[in-house]
Amino acid sequence: MCDIAITTTDRANAETERSEEDFESRLVQALNAGGLLLLTSLGHRTGLLETLAGQPPLTSQALAERSGLQERYVREWLGGMVAAEIVETDPQSATYWLPDERAELLTDRGTANLAVYAQFIPLLGSVEDDVLRCFREGGGVPYSRYPRFQEVMASDSGQTVLPALFDAILPLCPGLTDRLEAGIRVLDCACGRGRALLAMAERFPASRFVGYDLSAEAIAWANAQAEHAGLTNLTFEVRDLSDFDATAEPAAFDLITTFDGIHDQGQPRRLLAGIRKSLAADGVYLVQDIHASSHHHLDRQHPLGAMLYAVSVSHCMTVSLAQGGEGLGTMWGRERALRYLKEAGFGDIQVHQLEHDIQNDYFVCRP
């Protein structure tokens, strides 16, 4: 009996030791992955990745000259990308190259440029001191502390929403494309830089489009793009939607959309109530928002769970709290979303996921 007890204890100790070693290994891998994302963001923003793509092996000097950058910084960046096994090198010729299969995922040569998402790490890290203060004192970090967020989000939607908008997203609502072609009234709330509206206004000239967003920078960019494209059926307005339940014009729109726009609102319930108020009796509300559960333990298997919670703490939740808002956060989850939509007065709600988009749910809502 004593030998059995000793054997059992030894086995348990060995399993605990392996578990601790596995956890340590995970943390070391995470440190390396974090470094890689910072380097990838730099490579994306400087154009180094695009310059390397499809090129024969280059020296650090040649790469710096082609990119218009300082060679010493380029050489150090290359060292990190070689250590991360992203860029290859020949030590004899001191040259570097980006294999085609990796360039497909890190540049605009492929269907999705994952380097775009690497930008979130340094962007959110830049407000860590502000977020730390909020942990201790409460409140939130205002939108003004994120000067590049709208730009990065526009790049994100350019890969998730725009490529699928006409072939996969709008067809989730049967008959909607025909109505858009015939001419209806469309509103996009929290439209950001309005790339989805710009695309729809060009595709459906008989329809009228309006975009609202709190960001003056985003609206200025969107209006400039609409003017440049000569789109006379599209307008953008700077508008605070925290009182939209009171200020919305009744039955003014046949289609209302929000693309990743509800969970960081100061007053999401009021916005949803205003959307319901603005919707015509035969209208449809199309929502894209983060695919998640409203229960922490069910997010353990989420392929981007830790990343999206980091985005929430460092942006989506805190910008809402900065407005004295609810602070839903990125991972508010499907269960809560359905509850809020029903509370707003939507009786017919269908939830969809698209094959190309592991990050979002799509809700088709009718009165």
3D architecture notes:
The model has no long low-confidence stretch (mean pLDDT 94). The longest helix has 45 residues, at 2-46. The strands form 2 sheets. Strands 6-5-4-7-8-10-9 form a 7-stranded mixed β-sheet, with helices on both faces. A 3-stranded antiparallel β-sheet has the order 1-3-2. Helix 3 (60-67) crosses helix 4 (71-83). It starts with a helix and ends with a strand. The protein has helices at 2-46, 48-52, 60-67, 71-83, 100-106, 115-118, 120-125, 128-137, 149-160, 165-169, 176-182, 195-203, 216-229, 244-247, 268-278, 305-322, 334-343, and strands spanning 58-59, 88-90, 95-97, 185-189, 208-213, 234-238, 253-259, 279-290, 348-354, 357-366. It has 17 helices and 10 strands.
Task: Write the topology of this structure.
Blueprint: H1 2-46, H2 48-52, E1 58-59, H3 60-67, H4 71-83, E2 88-90, E3 95-97, H5 100-106, H6 115-118, H7 120-125, H8 128-137, H9 149-160, H10 165-169, H11 176-182, E4 185-189, H12 195-203, E5 208-213, H13 216-229, E6 234-238, H14 244-247, E7 253-259, H15 268-278, E8 279-290, H16 305-322, H17 334-343, E9 348-354, E10 357-366
Parallel strand pairs: 4-5, 4-7, 5-6, 7-8
Antiparallel strand pairs: 1-3, 2-3, 8-10, 9-10
Helix pairs in contact: 3-4
